[in-house]
UniProtKB/TrEMBL annotation:
Pathway in which the depicted protein is active: Amino-acid degradation; L-kynurenine degradation; kynurenate from L-kynurenine: step 1/2
GO annotation, biological process: kynurenine metabolic process
Protein name: Kynurenine--oxoglutarate transaminase 1
Keywords annotated in UniProt: Aminotransferase, Cytoplasm, Lyase, Pyridoxal phosphate, Transferase
Organism: Nothocercus nigrocapillus
Catalytic activity: 3-phenylpyruvate + L-glutamine = 2-oxoglutaramate + L-phenylalanine; L-kynurenine + 2-oxoglutarate = kynurenate + L-glutamate + H2O; an S-substituted L-cysteine + H2O = a thiol + pyruvate + NH4(+)
Gene name, Swiss-Prot/TrEMBL: Kyat1
GO cellular component entries: cytosol; mitochondrion
Family statement drawn from the similarity comment of this UniProt entry: Belongs to the class-I pyridoxal-phosphate-dependent aminotransferase family.
Cofactor field: pyridoxal 5'-phosphate
Length: 433
């Protein structure tokens, strides 16, 4: 018996589906930032609070008369929330949405994505992912047994003296078409795109839509930054294009919409024929998202719906404020010699750092992309944290564009001021003989 008790487990414990997905670059960069950063523009979330009307709604939800808001609610979404989401997104999508069948609430957009891949992707299915991409798509496809197929956005050289914009990063139509085949089950679209801030134009979306229709492919459309678009640019929902409603799942979340990432309230909108399978995954895994948070988000949408198109619309205000922060950070980065790619949307800004090649020690024999070495050097030597763009590429493509880093500008004025101080000091050091 004692021998039995002492015996260590010798069988492999890890499920096969985790093979090759257990590495995560964020762990390393989060740790570096925690150790060295004075200013952290790496983490992709706001350091300012959600709007007062939303916070007050949460307080009312947890301290009000309705004590049922502390209990389980409907699995596929708290009734007041699915109702308002159906009303809100029905208008935007030009569809009559049934709150009980065309909307499902999830634990953030993250779980919405997970449900999509688990519910729709089989062993051997291919899923097209546009690079650079929000990094969880790749492991999620693999865990479902699928094979990610990557296609890059290719930067076009902008006119001399003209700043590069995220709009200059485009798909090559022939290259995109070549990725579609017999095994293609779905394409993941993320517009506005994290990390580049690219807002896909109508022509590009039409190209994607035509290929999806031609090859009978599903579209998983991650639109979490849908309200964060700048310079009068329009966010176009791919589900509104001909032939796309029936094959698209649109995903968004309160995290980005209301600057409340920690609440983890997200949702999917689409035809019931697709959502029914997401419901199966959801019911057998998470079951539902916190009731009080859902109640508060429902109130938030009610507030916003009453102010659509008006000056005090939160969505309009937030975009205005963020555009100012974007422009301010761009000026600070340019001062030190980085070349920003002007983002049309999101709260991320990618900058070319090739001008610093001689500052960063070589790493002979290492395959680590330059941007990754640069980001580590910058946080250790300057106290400023950012994320290398190569983190948003698949393994074999990490060196393709390894000269950019991503900053998040959803930050308080004081944080951006502190970043500017670092960059100004850096500039003076460079100027000194
Ligand atoms: N999609 C993209 C493109 C994101 O950037 C993020 C968050 N960084 C998510 C999804 C996840 O959203 P949530 O916090 O609502 O789970």
């Amino acid at each position: 018996l004692s021998l039995h008790l002492q015996a260590k487990m010798s069988r492999p414990v890890q499920a096969r589906r985790l093979e090759g997905v257990d590495q995560n670059i964020w762990v390393e960069f989060v740790k570096l930032a925690a150790t060295y950063a004075t200013v952290n523009l790496g983490q992709g979330f706001p350091d300012f609070p959600p709007p007062a009307f939303l916070r007050e709604a949460f307080v009312r939800a947890v301290s009000g008369e309705n004590h049922m808001l502390h209990q389980y609610t409907r699995a596929f979404g708290h009734p007041p929330l699915v109702k308002i989401l159906a009303e809100f997104f029905g208008k935007l999508l030009g569809q009559e949405l049934d709150p009980l069948n065309n909307v499902m609430v999830t634990v953030g957009a993250y779980q919405a994505l997970f449900c999509c891949f688990q519910a729709l992707v089989d062993e051997g299915d291919e899923v097209i992912i546009i690079e650079p991409f929000f990094d969880c798509y790749e492991p999620m496809v693999k865990m479902a047994g699928g094979t990610p197929v990557f296609v890059p956005l290719r930067p076009k050289v902008s006119g001399a003296g003209k700043p590069m914009s995220s709009a200059d990063w485009q798909l090559d139509p022939a290259e995109l078409a070549s990725k579609f085949g017999e095994r293609t089950k779905a394409l993941v679209l993320n517009s506005p795109n994290n990390p580049l801030g690219k807002v896909f134009g109508r022509g590009e979306l039409q190209l994607i839509a035509e290929l999806c229709v031609k090859h009978d492919v599903l579209c998983i459309s991650d639109e979490v930054y849908e309200w964060l678009v700048y310079d009068g640019k329009e966010h176009i929902r791919i589900a509104t294009l001909p032939g796309m409603w029936e094959r698209t799942i649109s995903i968004s979340s309160a995290g980005k919409t209301f600057s409340a990432t920690g609440w983890k309230v997200g949702w999917t909108v689409g035809p019931s024929r697709l959502l029914q399978h997401l419901r199966t995954v959801h019911q057998n895994s998470i079951y539902h998202c916190a009731t009080a948070a859902q109640e508060a988000v429902a109130m938030g949408f009610r507030w916003e719906l009453e102010r659509r198109g008006q000056a005090d619309s939160y969505f309009a205000q937030l975009a205005r404020e963020l555009q100012g922060k974007r422009d301010r950070l761009m000026r600070s980065l340019e001062a030190v010699g980085m070349t920003p790619i002007v983002p049309e949307g999101t709260y991320f800004l990618v900058a070319d750092v090739s001008a610093f090649a001689s500052d960063v020690p070589e790493a002979p024999g290492s395959h680590e992309p330059f941007d990754s070495r640069f980001a580590k050097w910058m946080v250790k030597n300057k106290g400023l944290a950012a994320i290398p763009l190569s983190a948003f590429y698949s393994g074999p493509h990490k060196n393709d564009y390894g000269r950019f880093i991503r900053f998040c500008f959803a930050k308080e004025e004081a944080t951006l001021e502190a970043a500017n101080d670092i960059l100004q000091k850096w500039k003076q050091e460079k100027a000194a003989p």
